[in-house]
Each structure stands twice: as C-alpha cells, then as structure tokens.
Inverse folding.
C-alpha cells in the first residue's frame, strides 16, 4: 500500500504540479488549502509526510509544524517545508521547529521527489 | 447700655487680645514655627492698606461723590497685577541687601547715601503725619460719638476742648505705648516683627467682618435688600445723581486717572505697605496668592460702601450727621448696641493697625537713616568705643515712635478740622508718591544718580509742600488766607491751587501734575548731566541686575582691604548684642563647613560683606557702611575698577548665555538627527519588507512554471489533454509574472514621483464604454452581464486618460474575478454631484469582510476566500489605483457587506472653467 502524503499549500497551480508528481511516484495524495484544513487532515489521516507551505491563510506552516511536533504520537510524520521565503533566518526557523527538510521555491522536481523518497525509505 | 467704661474696657480688652496674638506669634517664631509664613496671612497683612479712612471715610466720600471713592481701591488692584514684575524685584533686592525700610532701600540704591536716606525719612515723616492724624481723628471722633449713645451728636470742634481733655491726645499716647510694646521689644537683625504681622492680619479680619456686618444690617435689616435700597436712592434726585461715575468726581477723567495712579503708588510706597509687603515678607512665592487674594479683600470691603452711604442719606436727610460717621451712627440710631460696639472695634482695628505699622516703619527709618548716621559721625560721642549699642538703638526708636505720634496729634490740632478724612489721606498719598520715580527708576534704570535722586525728591516734595501742605495750614487759619486767594505777595501765578495759571483741576490732581513734573524732571535731568561715583555705579548694578547676580556674594566682589575677625565681631556685637553676633558668626561658619568658635575664619571680602549686610539689617545700609569703613582698613575702588569688575561679570554672563544657546542648538540638532535616523531606519525596514514580498510573489509563479516544465520535459508520456492543461498553466503564470513586474515598476514610478502625467479633458462616459468594450470577451467567457447606467451628458474631468482607464480596467477585472460564477452581474453607474464625477462599480460576488476592506488597498494585500485559496492577482492593483485617483485629487473606496457583493467607487473633480480654457 502506498504511503500517504498531505500537500498543504494555497497556490492551486503548485498544488496541481505536486499532486501530479507524487501520484506518478506512487504516493496517495491529499490536499489542504490552508493551515486549519491541514491540521484537521493530519488529525484524521495521520499521513506519513506533510508538504507544508509556509505562507498559508488562517494558520502558517510554521505553526502547523510546531503543533505536529508537540504531539508524541505524531513523531513519525515527516515534515517537508516548502517556501518562497528562502532567507537563512527563515530556513533555520523551519528546521528549529522540527521540519525534516526545508526546500525553497522554485525547486527542482527531480530533487524534491528524490528527497521525499529518501525520507519515506522508498526506492525511487 | 453703652456707657463710657464699657467702651474703654472693651477697647483695652481688644488691644490686650492683639497683644496676646502678637506675643504668641513671636514665641512661635522663636521656636522656628512661624504662623505668618503663609500667603493668606501675608495678604491679610497687606490689607493694613484699609485704614479708618476706608472704614469711615469711604462712606463719607461716597455720600458726596458717589462712586468717586473707587479709584483709591482700583489703583492697588491694578498695581498688584504688576507686582510680579515690580514687587518681586524689590523683594529680591531687599532680601539680598537686608533692607530695613523704604529710606534704606533708596539710600542703598544710590551709593548707600546717608544724606538721601535722611531726606527720604524727613519726607516720609512729614508726608505721613496727616495720615496718622486722620487715624487719631477717627478714633477720637468715633469714641466721642459712641459715648453719646443713644443720642447722635457730632463731636465739637477741637478748639473748644482743653488739650488735656482731648481724647485724641490720650489715644495718641496710648497708641505710642502700645506700638512700643509691639515693635521694639527686641532688636531683630532682619527687622522682622512676626508678632506685629500676626496681629495686623487679625485686625484686617476684624475690620472686614465689622464693615460687612454694618453693610448687611443696613441693606437687609433697615431696608429690604439692595434692590429696595437702590430704588429708594434712585427716587431721590440728589442721590440718583451720584450713580454716574464721572460726574461724581470733581475734575472728571483727570481726577479718576490721577487718583488711580496715586493709589497705585501708595500701595507700594506708603512706609507701612513697604514694611508689610517687603520687609516682613517671608517668602517671595506668597506674591502669587496675594495677587488675587488682596484684590478680593479690597472688593469685599467696598461692596457695601454705596449701600451704607445711601442708607445714611435716606436715614438722616437733614444733613446734620457727618457722612464719615454713617457706619457708626446708622446702627446707633437703630439701637443696635452690639453692632455699634463691633463697628467701634472694627474702626479701632483699622486705625490702630495703620498707626502701629506706620510708626514702626517710620521709627526704623528715623533711627537708621536719620539719627544713627548723625550720631556715628559725631566723634565726640565716642560711639565707636561703646561695646553695646542695642540699648541706644531701641531707645532712639521708642523716642521716635512717641515723637511721630505726638507730631501726628499736632497736625490734627493744627489742620485736622479743615478736611474730611479722605482729603487728609490723599495729601499723604501724594507725599509718598514722590518716592515712585527714584524707586522705580532705581530698579530699572542704571543711570539714576544720587544727586539726581536728591534733586527729584526735593523738587517733588517742595511742590507738595507748597500746593498741599501749606494750603491745609492756611485753611485752618495758621497762614493768612490771602496766601491762597491772591498768591504770595499778590503774585497770581504762584497761587498754590492754580500754580502758573493751571486752573480748573481739583487740588490733588493739580498738585500731582506739578510735583511729578518737577520730581521726574529733576531726577532725570540731574542724573543725566552728572556722573556716578564708584559706589553708586556698583549699587546701581546690584539693584538693576539683581536677577543676574549670583546671590548675596554680589557685593563682596567689590571689596578690597584688610580686616580682622575680632574687629568684625566687636562691631556686630556692639549693635546686635553678643548673642546675635555669635549666632551670625555661627551661621557664616556653618555655611562654609567650619565651626565658630573654634575654626579660624578668614576676614576676606565675603566676610566683611556678610558683616556689613548683617549690620545693615539693624541700622540700615548707610550707617552700616560708615561703621564697617571705620572698623576695617579699606582701599577705595576707583570707578574704573568697579566698571572693570562689572564688565567682567557681564562678559561671564554673556558667555554663559552663548554657551546655553549653543548647547540648546546642539540639542535641537541632535533631536533632528535622531528623528531623521529613525525615519531612515523605518524606510529601510519598509524597503526590506517590500523586497521580501516581491521576491515571494515572483517565486510563486516561477515555482509552477519550473515544476510543469520539468514534468513535461522528463515525462514524454503525459497525455495530450494534461499536456495542454500544463502548458496553459505555464502561460498563465508567465503572464502573471509579467504583470507583477510591470506593476512593481509602475508603482515605484508613481511612488517616487517619476511617473509622467498627461493632463487632458477626460469624458468619463467614453472611458467607461471603452473599457467595457475592451473587456467584452472576458465577460462573455465568464457569462457576466454588464449593466452600465450612463447619463446623457457629463461634464468632463481633468486628468491622465490612460491612468483613469487603468483604474477602470482594474476595477472591472476585479469585479469579474469575484463575480458570482454562472450568473455574474456587474453594474456601473456614473453620476455628478457638487463638482465631482463619481463612478460606482458593483459586483454580485461574495462581498468583502470589514477586516479585508481595511487592507485591500495596501501593497500585496489581497482579499478573497481563504478557504478556497488565493485569487489570481498581484496584490498591487488596488494600491496603484488609489494612488492614481488620489493624484487626481479624488477618492477611491469600497462599500460591501459579506454575501451582498462589493461596490468600488471613486470620484474625480470636474474640470473648472479655468482649467478648461487652459486645456483648450
């Protein structure tokens, strides 16, 4: 059975690209369009990995990341932060909040998929 | 019954009470807990201004002149408003120089001149005698009248009485004894009489209460309130004439003005006023409250003057009762025993208060400025060798008190019957007004010289004697009356009441004009035509620049010579007694962190100056100067040297002024720089934020473009439909990128002011239909119905047509974006109102929440449905639109309620005829 990935981003076109990429690589993809939706879907689905945009309506990616890391039973959930904000302070903040990976937009699709596979222990 | 003994016993009991108050206040002062250190007591003590003249005489004056009694109280009220400038300066000077009296003040100012002090003293004593005699007259008259109770009989002429049965003589003697007990119990280095001040303040209360009591009784007891009283007065032709102000005073305007000026001077320069206001002042700040408290007192004690005058004239229409006695005779005629007694005590308060303070002030002057300088110069008395002179000083003062009161009585016998109370008082006012030029000139003009002051005072006083004093004596039969009627030796030009032909004025105005002319003229002319000695130059600077000097050290800079501490000690002990000398030395040593006796003090300029000031507190500046000069070896400074010291001081002052100014300028500059820096920092922060936001906005479409490009490149098997969709996204995101870059550039151009604006006449109807046509295709694609309601004709606006079209397109595409999908509807309206064209663009979309309404015009802030994701847009459109509209002088705003669509509106000013012509 394929691993579950939650994409949380408010940019529909980016979501479309990520969805296509991940489905093609055999993952089961869910989509949240804002921070609150992301939280409730994590609660419900307990995905293996969350792709988190930082600048989202209602609740920022940082906030979602922090809340996920506060819950012991969610320790296994991998978090990849995706952000158009690429300054060092912002990257550090994401990592310090417990993100497994911080990727700056725009990104190489090949590399993104490779890193996700790596995190989830799957063969490319 | 009000028998003689009741009145006498009550009077003495009252005087005893005063004495007890004074005794208590002195005890408290000795214990260091002064009861007079209060602005209220200070203000009440100033009310010593209101004497028997006020208490009895105001009503008399009102009965003959109507409101003519008022200038005497308007003057002080006006003057006290100036006190912050004048009196504060006099106070500061007096404290620094330990001034003991008005004569001392004037003598000090003009080079510590003993001669000048003497002249001032003589003028003050002679000038005040009529005033003192007035008080004696008031007390004895009121006593005589009360004694007749319940019959009202005016006192007989004085001549009819043998001198030993004359009440006035006994009154004078009793008051002398009382004043001696009050004022000369001990010798105070600062001339402070705390007990006296406390008693005077109490007396001010008593006379006010007594006068108000009569006023209330006459107004509400005899009559039915003020209305009733004034109605009755108005019905009487003689009384109603008194209610018009200017006709009330003989001489009209001139009289009013001169009487007001006269009393303005009196409140400053009557010896007793100078005593309570300056010498007895314990704190400069008391002035603040006195400035309104004292005028309030004046108002209160004058409120019932007219009612009592009217009441008296209605009550005694035959005119056989002297109006000066109404205050007393009205209660008597109504058989009000207690009130009569209260009034008698009130009058006694007013009179004794004046006499006590006045004679104490005068006796200080006589002792310090008249007798001592003479005695000290008489070498054969060998006063310099006597070890304790305090007894002598007290003796002189006591003698002076008795002498002054007896002289007052003498004047009363000589001239007292010729005038009413008020006229007698005015003669004294005119005498003390002679001090005004030399005092006011002395504190504001450095050029006044000793000779000038002497000349001014002598000239003014001579004219006063000739025009006021001699006529008073003539009227009483002591000089031939022809002297007044034909002039001396028949020279009409010299007639004392019409000097040099100046006729048609009342006596006081006439005397004031001539005496002031002579006084000021002589003072200024002689001052300007002579030079100052070194002493005068120094004192002039110390007085005029008192606020610029560094405290009491001011005088010490000018001393050069050698002195010994024991000499100085002996000098001080001789005049103050050894106890006071010890405590003075202790104070001096303590201020320098030393102990006396024990540590060695250095007899330098500071110390000699200190001793001289202490001494001046007891015997006046002029005598102190003589004594110090005899006890130490001094080198006289030349005028040049004094000038040099003063110049140096003024240079230092100037330097420090400049320094202050420079440091103020620096401070301002620093503040300016700091604000500028803050602004720069803020701008820098805004720029950072802008760059970061723009980066974010650029990266987002780039991400999609790159991701889809890579997908398409790496996976050739993507089916055709999807390939098409991905390519569409890439195209759209590229367009978005382009739009964003264009708008950022556009915005930066507008914000930096570099944008070019092509003004022309713009027809809004055309703009609207053009933009709607341009977007026709989009509307059709999205199935949006557009409804434009445009008037037949519209006035053109003035503006850049391309920019206005840009705004219109932006609003329409926003409306299209948010329209209800499927059955979208956009309404456009154009209307004209009050010089404005207004455009409304209404959609039927989801509406904008109030929170979003507040931010959508900001940079990179977009509204939209947060649940379904972002709308496509740069977040700059509305911001730019607002800039454009505001550049044209219009407004752009939104009105919306969630669920009911949104309406964006903007206004543009209609082109004026003027600008239309320009454009054409």
């Amino acid at each position: 059975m394929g691993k579950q990935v939650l994409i949380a981003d408010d940019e529909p076109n980016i979501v479309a690209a990520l969805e296509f990429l991940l489905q093609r690589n055999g993952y089961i993809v869910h989509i949240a369009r804002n921070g609150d939706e992301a939280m409730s879907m994590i609660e419900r689905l307990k995905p293996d990995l969350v792709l988190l945009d930082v600048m989202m309506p209602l609740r920022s990616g940082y906030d979602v990341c922090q809340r996920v890391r506060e819950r012991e039973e969610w320790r296994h959930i991998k978090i990849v932060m995706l952000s158009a904000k690429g300054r060092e302070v912002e990257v550090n903040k994401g990592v310090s909040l417990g993100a497994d990976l911080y990727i700056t937009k725009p990104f190489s699709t090949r590399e993104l998929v490779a890193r996700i596979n790596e995190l989830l222990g799957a063969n490319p | 019954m009000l028998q003689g003994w009741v009145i006498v016993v009550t009077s003495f009991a009252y005087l005893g009470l005063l004495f007890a108050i004074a005794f208590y206040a002195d005890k408290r002062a000795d214990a260091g807990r002064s009861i007079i250190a209060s602005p209220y007591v200070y203000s009440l003590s100033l009310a010593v201004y209101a004497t028997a003249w006020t208490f009895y005489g105001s009503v008399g004056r009102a009965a003959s002149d109507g409101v003519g009694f008022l200038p005497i109280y308007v003057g002080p009220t006006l003057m006290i408003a100036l006190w912050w400038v004048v009196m504060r300066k006099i106070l500061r000077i007096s404290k620094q120089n330990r001034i003991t009296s008005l004569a001392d003040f004037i003598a000090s100012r003009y080079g510590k001149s003993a001669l000048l002090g003497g002249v001032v003293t003589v003028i003050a004593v002679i000038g005040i005698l009529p005033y003192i005699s007035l008080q004696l007259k008031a007390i004895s008259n009121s006593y005589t009248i009360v004694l007749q109770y319940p019959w009202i009989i005016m006192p007989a002429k004085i001549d009819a009485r043998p001198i030993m049965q004359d009440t006035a003589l006994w009154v004078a003697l009793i008051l002398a004894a009382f004043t001696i007990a009050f004022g000369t119990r001990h010798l105070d280095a600062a001339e402070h009489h705390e007990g006296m001040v406390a008693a005077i303040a109490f007396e001010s209360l008593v006379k006010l209460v007594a006068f108000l009591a009569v006023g209330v009784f006459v107004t509400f007891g005899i009559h039915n309130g003020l209305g009733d009283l004034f109605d009755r007065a108005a019905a009487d032709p003689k009384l109603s004439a008194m209610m018009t102000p200017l006709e009330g005073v003989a001489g009209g305007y001139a009289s009013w003005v001169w009487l007001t000026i006269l009393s303005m001077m009196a409140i400053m320069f009557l010896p007793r006023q100078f005593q309570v206001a300056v010498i007895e002042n314990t704190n400069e700040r008391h002035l603040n409250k006195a400035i309104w408290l004292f005028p309030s007192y004046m108002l209160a004690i004058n409120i019932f003057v007219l009612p009592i005058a009217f009441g008296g004239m209605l009550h005694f229409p035959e005119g056989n009762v002297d109006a000066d006695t109404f205050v007393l005779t009205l209660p008597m005629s109504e058989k009000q025993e207690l009130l009569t007694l209260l009034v008698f005590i009130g009058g006694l308060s007013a009179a004794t208060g004046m006499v006590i303070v006045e004679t104490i002030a005068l006796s200080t002057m006589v002792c310090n400025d008249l007798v001592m300088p003479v005695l000290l110069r008489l070498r054969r008395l060998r006063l310099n060798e006597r070890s304790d002179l305090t007894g002598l000083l007290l003796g002189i003062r006591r003698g002076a008190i008795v002498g002054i009161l007896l002289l007052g009585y003498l004047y009363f016998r000589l001239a007292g019957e010729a005038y009413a109370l008020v006229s007698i008082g005015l003669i004294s006012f005119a005498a003390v007004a002679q001090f005004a030029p030399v005092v006011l000139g002395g504190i504001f003009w450095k050029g006044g010289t000793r000779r000038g002051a002497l000349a001014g005072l002598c000239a003014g006083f001579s004219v006063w004697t000739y025009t006021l004093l001699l006529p008073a004596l003539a009227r009483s039969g002591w000089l031939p009356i022809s002297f007044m009627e034909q002039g001396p030796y028949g020279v009409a030009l010299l007639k004392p009441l019409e000097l040099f032909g100046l006729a048609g004025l009342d006596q006081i105005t006439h005397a004031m004009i001539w005496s002031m002319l002579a006084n000021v003229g002589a003072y200024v002319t002689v001052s300007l035509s002579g030079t100052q000695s070194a002493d005068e130059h120094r004192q002039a600077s110390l007085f005029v620049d008192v606020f610029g000097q560094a405290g009491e050290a001011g005088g010490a800079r000018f001393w050069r010579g050698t002195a010994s501490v024991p000499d100085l000690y002996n000098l001080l002990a001789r005049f103050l007694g050894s106890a006071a000398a010890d405590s003075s030395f202790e104070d001096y040593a303590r201020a320098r962190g030393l102990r006396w006796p024990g540590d060695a003090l250095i007899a330098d300029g500071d110390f000699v100056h200190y001793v001289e000031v202490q001494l001046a507190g007891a015997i006046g500046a002029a005598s102190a100067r003589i004594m110090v000069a005899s006890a130490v070896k001094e080198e006289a400074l030349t005028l040049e040297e004094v000038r040099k010291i003063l110049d140096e001081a003024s240079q230092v002052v100037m330097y420090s002024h400049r320094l202050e100014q420079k440091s103020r300028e620096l401070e301002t500059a620093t503040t300016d720089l700091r604000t500028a820096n803050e602004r720069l920092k803020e701008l820098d922060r805004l720029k950072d934020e802008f760059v970061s936001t723009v980066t974010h906005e650029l990266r987002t479409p780039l991400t999609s473009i790159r991701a889809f490009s890579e997908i398409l490149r790496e996976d050739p098997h993507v089916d055709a439909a999807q390939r098409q969709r991905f390519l569409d996204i890439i195209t759209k995101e590229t367009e978005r990128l382009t739009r964003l870059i264009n708008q950022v550039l556009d915005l930066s151009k507008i914000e930096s002011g570099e944008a070019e604006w092509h003004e022309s006449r713009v027809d809004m109807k055309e703009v609207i239909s053009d933009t709607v046509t341009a977007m026709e295709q989009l509307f059709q694609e999205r199935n949006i119905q557009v409804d434009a309601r445009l008037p037949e004709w519209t006035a053109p606006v003035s503006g850049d047509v391309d920019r206005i079209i840009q705004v219109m397109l932006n609003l329409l595409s926003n409306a299209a974006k948010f329209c209800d999908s499927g059955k979208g509807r956009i309404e456009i309206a154009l209307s004209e109102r009050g010089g404005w064209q207004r455009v409304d663009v209404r959609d039927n979309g989801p509406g904008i929440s109030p929170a979003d309404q507040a931010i959508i015009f900001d940079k990179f802030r977009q509204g939209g449905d947060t649940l379904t994701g972002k709308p496509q847009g740069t977040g700059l459109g509305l911001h730019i639109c607002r800039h454009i509209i505001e550049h044209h002088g219009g407004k752009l705003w939104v009105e919306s309620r969630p669920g009911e669509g949104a309406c964006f509106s903007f206004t543009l000013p209609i082109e004026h005829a003027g600008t239309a012509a320009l454009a054409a």
About this structure: Residues 274 and 824 of chain B are 94 Å apart (CA to CA).
